[in-house]
Amino acid sequence: MDKPVIILGAKGIAHPALEIFNSNQVIVYGFLDEDAQTHGTEINNVPVLGHTEDEGFLKLIGKKTEAFVAVDDSKYRKFLVDMLLENRKMQPVNAIHQRAYVSTDATLGHGNFINANVTIGAGSEIGSHCIFHTGAIIDHQVKIQDFVQIGAGSIINAEVTIEEGAFIGSGVTIVAGVTIGKGARVGAGSVVIASVGKNETVFGNPAAKMK
């Protein structure tokens, strides 16, 4: 990556995103954040320059810099992604840690956060703007749609489908072949042995629907 990166967001995954770009010798120009109290501060010597909607900095994106959206909340992340697409006609770059493994025939969309020791297996299809925390394992032929978040140490077995906006907590195991529906949530440490419906929340071993 030739251009430096502006990171939108200065909390949550923003600091590890900086570390990811550092691991790949990519310069981070600065952070933008909606919280004015962060403006003028620094994260590991990189400044928080201003607001995420500050045109003075946004106009640099696409011309002089790339962008990455480092926001945990999927709704606000989607808002910022749409803003970049509409105003700057560009998609955020992927942030892939140097110690992650992505199979040579896996496919990736845009703007994904892939932290250290994540594995993405052969033939897997990853959408855009997903978050994969440290050590998550995505086996072969997995299909993951946009804006999915997968917690640290989770194991997604072969031929699982995870639909848009689903949240998988830390240390979850999902057995082969099941589907996690759009907007579903799987609690930390759960073992999922059956498909989970749209917007359902499940927890436990085996995972059961929360009432």
Task: Tell me briefly what this model is.
The protein has 211 residues and is α/β, with parallel strands linked by helices. The protein contains three helices and 24 strands. A hairpin with a 2-residue loop joins strand 3 and strand 4.
Throw out a few tags for this protein:
alpha/beta; 211 residues; 3 helices; single chain; eight-stranded mixed β-sheet
Helix-strand layout with pairing:
Layout: E1 5-8, H1 14-23, E2 28-32, E3 42-43, E4 46-50, H2 55-58, E5 66-69, H3 74-88, E6 95-96, E7 101-102, E8 107-108, E9 113-114, E10 119-120, E11 125-126, E12 131-132, E13 137-138, E14 143-144, E15 149-150, E16 155-156, E17 161-162, E18 167-168, E19 173-174, E20 179-180, E21 185-186, E22 191-192, E23 201-203, E24 208-209
Structure description:
It is a single chain. The protein is α/β, with parallel strands linked by helices. The chain is built from 3 helices and 24 strands. The strands form 4 sheets. Strands 6-9-12-15-18-21-23-24 form an 8-stranded mixed beta sheet, covered by helices on one side. The radius of gyration is 17 Å and the shape is globular. The mean pLDDT is 96.
Give the low-confidence spans: none
Which structural class should the secondary elements be placed in? alpha/beta
Helix content: 10-25%
Order the strands across the largest sheet as they lie in space.
Answer: 6-9-12-15-18-21-23-24
Shape: globular
Please summarize the sheet with the most strands.
Answer: 8 strands, mixed
Q: How many individual β-strands? A: 24
| SSE string | EHEEEHEHEEEEEEEEEEEEEEEEEEE
The share of residues in extended strands comes to 25-35%
Mean pLDDT: 96
Number of helices: 3
Query: How big is the Rg?
Result: 17 Å
> How far do the termini sit from each other?
47 Å
